[in-house]
Design brief:
Oligomer: single chain
Structural class: mainly alpha
Shape: globular
Strand content: under 5%
Radius of gyration: 20 Å
Order of helices and strands: HHHHHHHHHHHHH
Number of helices: 13
Length: 258
């Protein structure tokens, strides 16, 4: 961090590479790859807020940095030793953000992103496929294609439900994105199903942040179904158990007053 803060990006990247070589296959190595990717994205961001305004030569430099970041994130996905780490979810989230940057800059198209996420996460690796589909859905939603986003995430969710070999843990951001799309489409029963799954999954893993967000979803949808008593039960649980949550506790209080 000191090297990065001093603007010594090459030295910082070299230090992370040394860490990866020293502790191969560990969570520290996976986080090192994340940091390398993030540093290259940061370097690209410092070149221009809108890379379309750069000269052709500088645009090539920008794309090279973005490609280096993409390669780092992909390396996390490809290494089976990292498959149980939450770094997988972070890498997919950053890949979604990265593709949004490329598309916004006019250097890639939405269809390119769709093909990319399908390629890096084939159905033969079901856990990764489901998580990558959630990330793609989030990207499509940000790009304004809500219909295709809902279709993509819904399909992935159903595959996760049907998995027989193991329970697939989904990231909280994916649950939140799915729930948002379902609220937009007034699918109350599906919101309940998805939120109950998240609550059970996150309670088991001790992820209080996810549990609080699931309870908030349940509380909101109960209000939509005119069941204020049940909504109050869910929302009061958030205030009692998760007052530290950065948004869920205050949102719960808002809905209870409202």
């Amino acid at each position: 961090d000191e090297l990065k803060n001093a603007g010594k990006f090459d030295e910082a990247i070299a230090a992370y590479k040394e860490l990866i070589e020293k502790f191969p296959g560990t969570e520290s190595a996976a986080e090192g790859l994340m940091s390398i990717g993030n540093l290259n994205v940061e370097r690209a961001g410092k070149m221009a807020s809108n890379p379309k305004n750069l000269s052709p030569e500088k645009q090539k430099d920008w794309n090279d940095l973005i490609q280096k970041a993409q390669d780092s994130y992909e390396e996390i996905l490809k290494n089976e030793k990292y498959s149980s780490f939450s770094t997988i979810d972070k890498a997919l989230s950053e890949l979604s953000n990265l593709w949004q940057r490329k598309i916004s800059a006019g250097f890639s198209a939405k269809n390119d992103a769709t093909e990319y996420f399908k390629k890096i996460a084939p159905e033969s690796n079901l856990s990764l496929h489901v998580k990558a589909s959630f990330s793609l859905g989030s990207l499509l939603s940000l790009l304004g294609d809500k219909e295709e986003a809902l279709k993509t995430i819904s399909s992935a969710y159903e595959k996760a439900k049907e998995a027989k070999d193991k329970e697939i843990s989904l990231p909280n951001s994916g649950y939140e994105q799915y729930r948002s799309l379902l609220f937009d489409n007034h699918q109350a029963d599906k919101i309940i199903e998805v939120s109950e799954r998240q609550l059970e999954e996150k309670d088991k893993s001790g992820d209080g942040k996810g549990s609080a967000e699931a309870l908030l979803g349940l509380g909101r949808v109960c209000f939509e179904k005119d069941d204020s008593a049940k909504a109050g039960e869910y929302l009061n649980q958030i205030i009692a158990k998760y007052p530290w949550h950065p948004t869920a506790a205050s949102d719960a209080q808002y809905y209870l007053i409202w």
